[in-house]
Amino acid sequence: MPAPIEVILGDPNPLMLQALAEIFERDQRFSLVATAKTAEGFLETVLRAPVPVGVIEWSLPVLGAERLMAILRENPNAPRIVVYASSSDPAIARRAMAAGAAGFCSRETGSEQLLDIAATVAQGKMVFPFLDVRQLKRDPAEDLTGREKTLLAALARGRTNTELANELGISINTVKFHLRNLYEKLGFRNRAQAIAFYYSESTLQPPE
């Protein structure tokens, strides 16, 4: 038999982490090296004990899964990451892939598929069963509503939330609601990233 695949697990929920550890320990394809409850703990562990595969929950605190994977991309010995989440939302799968994940799995599918995805990822392959590959070439701007495009253009002009509310005739809370949706659709964390995206997308800018 081939040598077991060494793996490190990360999940903020102690009960889920214990259950996940037991699942991997029972599978002879794997050798569980360590577990972590935070992104920082996971990072410290993999830097100290490099392994080929890491399995992390999407909401792993405090850095978050996306930031963790961005840091790991700078390390040539970083594990290939499988992200699992409580939802099969394709938007999460796309964000995981963009951040550098090698695989994605929803909790809804059960432990066997997670194990199989981790084993496949260890072979150097990418597995995103909930991601429609036809969406990979889509322009994210296509998913924005007219109001969200208007907000994005106003952000690029340096408007504050109060100014946006006054210009659009809506409350500041409504502005914040639309901005949250806007950031979520584009996979951004703040307005600086959104503004940079606006200026990189010719389809969003009015003709000269």
User: Which sheet architecture does the biggest sheet show?
Assistant: 5 strands, parallel
The second-level CATH architecture of the largest domain is 3-Layer(aba) Sandwich
Strand residue content: 5-15%
Q: Tell me the Rg in angstroms.
A: 20 Å
CATH topology descriptor of the largest domain: Rossmann fold
- Taking pLDDT < 50 over at least 5 consecutive residues as the criterion, the unreliable ranges are none
- Please give the count of helices: 9
Number of strands: 5
- N-to-C order of helices and strands: EHEHEHEHEHHHHH
Percent helix range: 40-55%
Distance between the termini: 65 Å
Overall outline: elongated
The largest sheet has its strands arranged as: 2-1-3-4-5
Task: Supply the CATH superfamily name of the largest domain.
Answer: Response regulator
Nearest-integer average pLDDT: 86
Q: Can you tell me the CATH class of the largest domain?
A: Alpha Beta
Structural class: alpha/beta
Whole-number total of structural domains: 2
Describe this structure as you would to a colleague:
By secondary structure, the protein is α/β, with parallel strands linked by helices. It is elongated, with a radius of gyration of 20 Å. The protein has two domains: about 130 residues, Rossmann fold (3-Layer(aba) Sandwich); about 60 residues, Winged helix-like DNA-binding domain superfamily/Winged helix DNA-binding domain (Arc Repressor Mutant, subunit A). Helices cover about 45% and strands about 15% of the residues. A five-stranded parallel sheet has the order 2-1-3-4-5, with helices on both faces. The longest helix is centred in the C-terminal third of the chain and has 15 residues. The protein has nine helices and five strands, in the order βαβαβαβαβααααα.
